[in-house]
Specification:
about 210 residues; alpha/beta; Rossmann fold; 6 helices; 7 strands
C-alpha cells in the first residue's frame, strides 16, 4: 500500500520552524502537488537562539514563506511558542496540544522526528507524537546531524521539482544559512544518496514507525 496515495489529511510535526523542511520538504511538496491537505505544526520559533543581526521573531516570517513555497495553505500552518530546549519541561502540555491537533485534523499520516534524535526538543515531540498518534501511520524524518542511528525503512521518490522546492523553501530561512547542513549542496547530495539506495534519481528516507493500512 502506498501511504502517499491515501486521501486523509497529513500532519507535519516540526519541533522548531524549519525542521519539517529539512526532514521532509520534498515529500511535503509532492503531497501538496497531489492535492493532499497538509498541515504543519511548529512548536518553537527559537527566539532565544536567533543571531543578533536578525529580529527575534524572524523565523515566524521565514516559516510562513517556506511552507508557502512547498504548497501548504497559510491557514494550515500552526505555530506554538515554546522556548527552545525547554520542551521536556512542558511534556504534558505538548501532549495535550498534540491530542487537540489529532481531534481537529484527524490525520491519517504524521511526519515527525526520529525517536533516536538526540536533540532534547526533537525527542520530546517524537515521544509525545507517538503517544498522540499511535493509531495513525507515522513516518519519522531524517536529520543526520542529530541521528545517532537511523533505520532507512521507507523512501519517497522525489522529482527534480520536488527537490528544488525543498531547496527554495530552505533558502527562505536566511537566519539559518550559517548552518553547515543548510547548503544546497548538502541537501541535494543527501537526496541523491537516498535515491541511489532505491535506484531512483532523488529521494527522502523515513523510519516507518507505524503503518496503518
Amino acid at each position: 500500500m502506498n501511504l502517499l496515495a491515501d486521501t486523509s489529511p497529513v500532519l507535519i510535526l516540526a519541533p522548531h520552524t524549519d525542521d519539517g523542511e529539512f526532514g521532509c520538504g520534498g515529500t511535503i511538496h509532492k503531497l501538496c502537488e497531489q492535492g493532499r491537505e497538509v498541515y504543519y505544526a511548529a512548536f518553537s520559533a527559537c527566539k532565544q537562539s536567533v543571531q543578533p543581526q536578525f529580529a527575534p521573531d524572524v523565523l515566524i516570517t521565514e516559516v510562513k514563506e517556506a511552507t508557502s513555497i512547498l504548497g501548504i495553505k497559510p491557514q494550515n500552518l500552526i505555530l506554538f511558542d515554546y522556548d527552545v530546549r525547554t520542551f521536556s519541561f512542558h511534556r504534558q502540555e505538548i501532549l495535550e496540544k498534540l491530542i487537540e491537533l489529532r481531534e481537529q485534523i484527524k490525520p491519517g499520516l504524521v511526519f515527525m522526528p526520529s525517536l533516536n534524535d538526540i536533540h532534547q526538543d526533537h525527542k520530546t515531540i517524537a515521544e509525545e507524537g507517538l503517544r498522540a498518534f499511535k493509531f495513525s501511520s507515522i513516518l519519522c524524518y531524517e536529520m543526520p546531524w542529530n541521528n545517532l542511528q537511523f533505520n532507512t525503512s521507507g523512501f519517497v521518490k522525489l522529482s527534480e521539482t520536488n527537490l528544488q522546492k525543498k531547496v527554495d523553501a530552505l533558502k527562505a530561512y536566511k537566519s539559518q544559512a550559517h548552518r553547515s547542513y543548510a547548503t544546497e549542496e548538502f541537501v541535494r547530495s543527501l537526496a541523491l544518496t537516498r535515491g541511489v539506495q532505491i535506484q531512483s534519481g532523488f529521494a527522502e528516507t523515513f523510519e516507518v514507525l507505524r503503518f496503518v493500512g
